[in-house]
Amino acid sequence: MSIGRRISRIVRANRTAAKEKPTDPIQTVEQAHRQQLDLVDQARRSVADLAANRHRLELLAGEARAELDQLERRASSAVNAGDDDAARAALRRSLAVTKRLETLTRQRDDLDTQVRQLDSNLQRLETRVEDNGIRYQTLKARHGAAQAELGMQDALAGSGQAAAGAEAAARQAELEARRVQARAAAHDELSWTDPNSRRVEEAFEELEASSATERELDRLKNHHPRD
Question: Is the separation of the CB atoms in 148 and 42 below 8 Å?
Fold first, then answer.
């Protein structure tokens, strides 16, 4: 399955999951981004594996070319020595190695084409994932800023409600203090109208003490007349 098809399946799966159960959009985007990064790693490994196979085919092709050179020299030496049988054997072996070299070269060329194609696809995928990563980070930052602003608005609203409640409690306390003061003043006025109240008794006692003091002062003055 190609990388593009896998990405399409992931997107469709995410959409289906979103319909079935509401999720955090930032979490969904983050999960999709991680999956894309995993696909990039898989594509890189695929390109690396193909490049390694291409390198092995190049080594085998080099060995085949070296063997061909050796067989040509052997056939030439046999011809110079007049050994036609040895020359024929070297040439037959050379034909087999030539076919093997052609097969290896064709396979190497096919792998080279695949490597170049996959490497080009990998570069496009890396660019797309990088762009998506930047977009994801931007969305995450905007989402965080929106959450912070919402939290600030909630705090301000709560603070306003608390302030309004405190103000209402202060007004209630002030009204209660006024009622208590009014009751105290009324009680003070009523205490003067009750002849049996302690306040009236204290006033009479003070009056009697003052009268006794004045009488005693007059007595002392009469016993000690001024010159």
Answer: no
Are residues 14 and 28 in contact, defined by beta-carbon separation less than 8 angstroms?
yes
For the stretch 26-85, pLDDT in tens is 777 778 778 888 888 888 888 899 889 999 999 999 999 999 999 999 999 999 998 889
Give the integer Cα–Cα distance in Å for 163 and 176.
Answer: 20
pLDDT in tens, 143-193: 778 777 788 777 777 666 666 666 777 777 777 777 777 776 655 555 545
Tokens 């792998």, residue located: 111
The encoded tokens of residue 36 equal 């894309």
| Six token digits for residue 192 | 């003067």
Instruction: Choose between 225 and 211: higher pLDDT.
Output: 211
CB 28 within 8 A of CB 142: no
User: How far is the CA of 13 from the CAs of 25, 89, 105, 135, in angstroms?
Assistant: 14, 64, 43, 21
Residue 121: is its pLDDT beyond 80?
Answer: yes
Q: What is the DSSP string of 98-135?
A: HHHHHHHHHHHHHHHHHHHHHHHHHHHHHHHHHHHHHH
Residues 6+ apart with CB under 8 A from 78: 84, 85, 86, 87, 90
Residues 166, 168, 171, 175, CA torsion sign: negative
Whole-angstrom Cα distance, residue 103 to residue 129?
38
pLDDT at 61 (0 to 100): 93
Strands in the chain per DSSP E: none
